Amino acid sequence: GQLTSLQELLLSYNRIKSVPKEISNCISLERLELAVNRNICDLPPQLSDLKKLSHVDLCMNQFTAVPSALLDMPNLEWLDMGGNKLQELPDAIYRMENLHTLWLQRNEIKSLPETISNMKNLSTLVLSNNKLKDIPACMKDMTNLRFVNFRDNPLELEVTLPPCENTEEEEQQEMFGIEFMHMYIQESLKKTG
């Protein structure tokens, strides 16, 4: 058994402690779910051989860094690393060039690398409940970003969104979303300018 035809491997909620390198033999794998195992802290580098892998769920484990294997997966589009112990993102995060959804909520991330702005396909970025003190100005150029969440971070600047004209507009406004991000960056640039 090499399981070369296996497309989905769903192993969430199993108390798995480590991921065997043999998973890299599953060359047709497109979806890997290892959420809520609580003890996984790394992935074997051989996983970068999984060129078809597009969806990876690693939330609620013990990762302190984004595994290097993920940075070399050309088709990775969706990644959830929420509820881990990440303190930073690697500068090489931009290498995940096809990533459109990145969940990083409930970590310990203190700052974002400037290279995050090179993630041209990123449309959803969730950073709530981290330790971010600032939003990098370069993020204003991330034109594909459609949803972002900075809620519950100790951001240094206080930014208040302008009042909405009607209730419909108010319902659509996200307090720590795209509009907030752009206003924050604008205020930040005024202070440093």
From TrEMBL:
InterPro entries recorded: Leu-rich_rpt, Leu-rich_rpt_typical-subtyp, LRR_dom_sf, LRR_domain-containing
GO cellular component: cytoplasm
Coiled coil: none
Gene3D superfamilies from the UniProt entry: Ribonuclease Inhibitor
Keywords: Leucine-rich repeat, Repeat
Protein origin, superkingdom: Eukaryota
SUPFAM superfamilies on file: L domain-like
The keyword Repeat is annotated on this UniProt entry: yes
Protein name: Leucine-rich repeat protein SHOC-2
Species assigned in the record: Tricholaema leucomelas (pied barbet)
Species lineage: Eukaryota, Metazoa, Chordata, Craniata, Vertebrata
Gene behind this protein: Lrrc39
